[in-house]
């Protein structure tokens, strides 16, 4: 009887192991479909765009002649718009997440706020563009400027940053807070010296996801009136005379990389298609550099934390 029971247990274990193998194979196939698809598209983009990747391509303005066209105004505009987006979205999103998780009372008001924040993360980007067109462009009089674009994309990624901040804070063990309070620390000291440092890695993960989404958005930027053809740069943020910093650039007209790519792909000439492939490759590199910097900062923060 005992041997029979052992044999039955072995058969059950073997059957479960077979199912584990089946699910592992299915998971690997699903992963390969995504990876191979991206690899094929990326390789095709590199092959088509590689001949156009030169110094002139980065320092030339867009042109009606494909061989002379460049992405200077586009990559400068994308960089400045992302700077404004980060300056508004990251502090506001982190502060909102900290308040909701550590300070706000748990009642029906905060429940409604939490539901709305979660729902806003799934709202189509064109809705944010329409909101920004009426609010920033017309109501506040910011016009079709870098500031309007940065604020629009900041609103777009704000729910992502808030949700990531809250989830990172929730993952911190409660005994860290209790130990801090037991030693006489105030709530703000606990948040500043313990909660934020320990949750910084998860918060940066949310920032990475949000910024990666923002840099590739086209619909809201077109809605607020970004230019599809621009042959000049915004005023420089740095000056040679006091006060050495200028903010005139935030009100300047602009274009960004996704709009430049869209403009080129809409043209029938094959040369412009190659330009679009080269610009797409540069946009992917910009995203990887931006994400790589955030990942490096997250790694350094986690390395310096001692639980």
Descriptive report:
The protein has 307 residues and is mainly α. It folds into two domains: 2-51; 53-304, MetI-like (MetI-like fold), CATH 1.10.3720. It has eleven helices and no strands. Helix 3 (72-103) runs parallel beside helix 6 (146-170), helix 6 packs across helix 8 (187-215) and helix 8 (187-215) runs antiparallel to helix 11. The model has no long low-confidence stretch (mean pLDDT 82).
Strand content: under 5%
Give the helix/strand class.
mainly alpha
CATH overall fold name of the largest domain: MetI-like fold
For the CA atoms, what is the radius of gyration?
Answer: 25 Å
| Helix count from the secondary structure assignment | 11
**Sheet bearing the most strands, described?**
none
The number of E-state strands comes to: 0
Instruction: Specify the CATH architecture of the largest domain.
Output: Orthogonal Bundle
- List unreliable stretches of 5+ residues: none
CATH superfamily of the largest domain, by name, is: MetI-like
Overall pLDDT: 82
Return the CATH class of the largest domain.
Mainly Alpha
Shape: globular
Tell me the helix content.
over 70%
Order of helices and strands: HHHHHHHHHHH
Number of structural units classed as domains: 2
* N/C terminus separation: 52 Å
């Amino acid at each position: 009887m005992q041997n029979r029971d052992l044999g039955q247990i072995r058969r059950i274990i073997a059957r479960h192991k077979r199912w584990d193998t089946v699910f592992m194979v299915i998971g690997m196939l699903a992963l390969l479909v995504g990876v191979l698809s991206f690899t094929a598209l990326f390789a095709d983009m590199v092959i088509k765009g590689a001949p156009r990747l030169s110094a002139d391509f980065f320092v030339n303005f867009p042109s009606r002649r494909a061989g002379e066209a460049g992405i200077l105004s586009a990559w400068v505009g994308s960089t400045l718009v992302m700077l404004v987006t980060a300056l508004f979205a990251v502090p506001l999103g982190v502060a909102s997440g900290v308040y909701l998780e550590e300070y706000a009372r748990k009642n029906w008001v905060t429940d409604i706020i939490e539901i709305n924040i979660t729902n806003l993360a799934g709202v189509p980007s064109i809705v944010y563009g329409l909101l920004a067109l009426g609010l920033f462009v017309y109501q506040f009089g910011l016009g079709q400027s870098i500031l309007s674009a940065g604020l629009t994309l900041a609103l777009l990624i704000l729910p992502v940053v808030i949700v990531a901040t809250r989830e990172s804070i929730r993952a911190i063990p409660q005994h860290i807070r209790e130990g801090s309070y037991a030693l006489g620390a105030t709530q703000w000291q606990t948040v500043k010296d313990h909660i934020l440092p320990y949750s910084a890695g998860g918060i940066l993960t949310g920032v990475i996801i949000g910024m990666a989404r923002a840099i590739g958005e086209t619909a809201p930027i077109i809605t607020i009136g970004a230019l599809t053809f621009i042959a000049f740069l915004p005023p420089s943020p740095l000056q040679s005379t006091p006060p050495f910093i200028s903010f005139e650039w935030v009100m300047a007209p602009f274009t960004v990389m996704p709009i430049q790519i869209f403009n080129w792909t809409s043209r029938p000439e094959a040369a412009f298609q190659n330009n679009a492939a080269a610009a797409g490759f540069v946009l992917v590199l910009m995203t990887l550099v931006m994400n790589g910097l955030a990942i490096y900062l997250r790694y350094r923060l986690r390395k310096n934390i001692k639980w």
